[in-house]
């Protein structure tokens, strides 16, 4: 499995390269200093101190330039500042490549040549499904896509929790399909619907999505994606960080393209199946709005991992404006539940997930799963589960 961009998978290789370079650099600098000053004053501790400072400076510069890991610093140089006044149509140049014959198929390059950066996103017209299908002729049944001109290096499943947001779903499909094709990924979009009118449960739907998606393929990465968030820069690659769960929607327009608070983990997140299982997935017990994403952020830490974040100038998302949803009132127990999350994360999650899969249909643009997820407990709504 190979990461496409700013991952930490090449960290070990880069470290040996860095050591070799540092050694050569040290030797050269020493000779240069000695020649410049015609003295041997740089022997011993002083020389080591100067060199250590220079190295520290070098590492700091590299780290600042990297996006989510050290290796990012060594990768392709990204623009210092993205110009969001110059936007590209998300469908621009998508049919640029003619398909290669099966014998000529090579691995897709580490950086897709189709990336353009800032994407024009607006919600003036709601696209109808027929139009989206027409614009995405190579998407296969179930919302599956695989590049035609190279062998994708990465397989990502996109999981969207859903109920009564059909208009948002159409916007998402219109933008996300070409966006992911620009990244030359092998991907599939899953929409997980909650059956009935009971209280909404986003986190449980995502657990179901993961369970169902893993029956279909060995995904490298799972993207947990709100239906109303549209990415605005195609350099925001839909791949995982191998070491840490990744917060992808770090800059949403509704929060002025900043994090609303330091530990925010809502909207769009990316985890490998291993990371997901290590944190026992998401809690099943958060019924109604709020708190489940904070609990997930806690779980990342309980499971001994950290959150990495897409830099704010790339992790930009436009949110489709909407009013409150029926059946998704604020969960009044959420603050109390959060204080107890460290006690329950090991017993409430993938290992306690129960649902009934009502249907799994392969539509032209996505895999549509509908599940009966049960109801919020009546006598003690939103109570934390028994251990
Ligand atoms: N969702 C649905 N249908 C619903 C509710 C939620 O599909 O009825 C899904 C959808 O993918 C949405 C996600 O769950 O993007 C998260 O929903 P949310 O209501 O938590 O978050 P959203 O960003 O709205 O859509 C935030 C404003 C609500 C504030 C209410 C505070 N009391
Ligand atoms: C926090 C919520 C999160 C929510 C975030 C942003 O207060 O679940 O606001 O909400 N946490 C709690 O309530 C404990 S938003 O402005 O998107 O509606 O994601």
TrEMBL record:
The protein's Enzyme Commission number: 2.4.1.-
Catalysed conversion reaction: N-acetyl-D-glucosamine + UDP-alpha-D-galactose = beta-D-galactosyl-(1->4)-N-acetyl-D-glucosamine + UDP + H(+)
Keyword flag Manganese: yes
Keywords: Disulfide bond, Glycoprotein, Glycosyltransferase, Golgi apparatus, Manganese, Membrane, Metal-binding, Signal-anchor, Transferase, Transmembrane, Transmembrane helix
Name used for this protein in its record: Beta-1,4-galactosyltransferase
Needed cofactors: Mn(2+)
Family recorded in the similarity comment: Belongs to the glycosyltransferase 7 family.
Compartments, as annotated in UniProt: Golgi apparatus membrane
Gene Ontology CC annotation, any one: Golgi membrane
Sequence ranges assigned to domain Galactosyltransferase C-terminal in this UniProt record: 246-322
Enzyme class: transferase
Annotated metabolic or biological route of this protein: Protein modification; protein glycosylation
Electron transport in keyword set: no
Galactosyltransferase N-terminal domain mapped to chain residues: 108-241
């Amino acid at each position: 499995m190979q990461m496409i961009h700013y991952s930490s998978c090449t960290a070990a290789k880069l470290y040996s390269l860095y050591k070799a370079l540092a050694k050569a650099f040290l030797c050269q600098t020493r000779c240069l200093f000695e020649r410049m000053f015609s003295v041997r004053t740089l022997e011993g501790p002083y020389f080591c101190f100067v060199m250590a400072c220079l190295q520290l400076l070098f590492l700091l510069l590299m780290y600042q330039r990297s996006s989510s890991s050290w290796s990012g610093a060594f990768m392709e140089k990204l623009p210092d500042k993205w110009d969001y006044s110059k936007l590209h149509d998300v469908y621009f140049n998508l049919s640029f490549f003619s398909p290669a014959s099966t014998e000529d198929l090579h691995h897709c390059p580490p950086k897709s040549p189709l990336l353009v950066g800032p994407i024009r996103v607006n919600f003036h017209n709601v696209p109808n499904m027929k139009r989206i299908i027409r614009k995405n002729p190579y998407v296969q049944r179930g919302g599956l896509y695989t590049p035609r001109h190279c062998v994708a290096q990465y397989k990502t499943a996109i999981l969207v929790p859903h109920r009564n947001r059909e208009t948002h779903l159409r916007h998402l499909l219109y933008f996300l399909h070409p966006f992911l094709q620009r990244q030359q990924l092998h991907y599939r979009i899953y929409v997980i619907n909650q059956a009935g009118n009971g209280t909404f449960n986003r986190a449980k739907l995502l657990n179901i999505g993961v369970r169902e998606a893993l029956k279909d393929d060995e995904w490298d990465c799972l993207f947990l994606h709100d239906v109303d968030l549209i990415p605005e820069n195609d350099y925001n690659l839909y791949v995982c960080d191998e070491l840490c769960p990744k917060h992808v929607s770090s800059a949403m327009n509704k929060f002025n393209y900043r994090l609303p608070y330091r530990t925010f983990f809502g909207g769009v997140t990316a985890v490998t199946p291993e990371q997901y299982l290590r944190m026992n997935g998401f809690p099943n017990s958060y019924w109604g709005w709020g708190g489940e994403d904070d609990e997930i952020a806690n779980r990342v830490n309980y499971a001994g991992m950290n959150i990495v974040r897409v830099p704010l100038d790339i992790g930009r998302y436009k949110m489709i404006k909407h009013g409150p949803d029926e059946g998704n009132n604020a969960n009044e127990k959420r603050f109390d539940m959060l204080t107890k999350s460290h006690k329950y994360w090991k017993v409430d999650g993938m290992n306690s997930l129960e649902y009934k899969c009502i249907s799994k249909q392969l539509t032209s643009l996505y895999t549509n799963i509908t599940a009966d997820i049960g109801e919020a407990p009546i006598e003690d709504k939103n109570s934390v589960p028994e251990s």
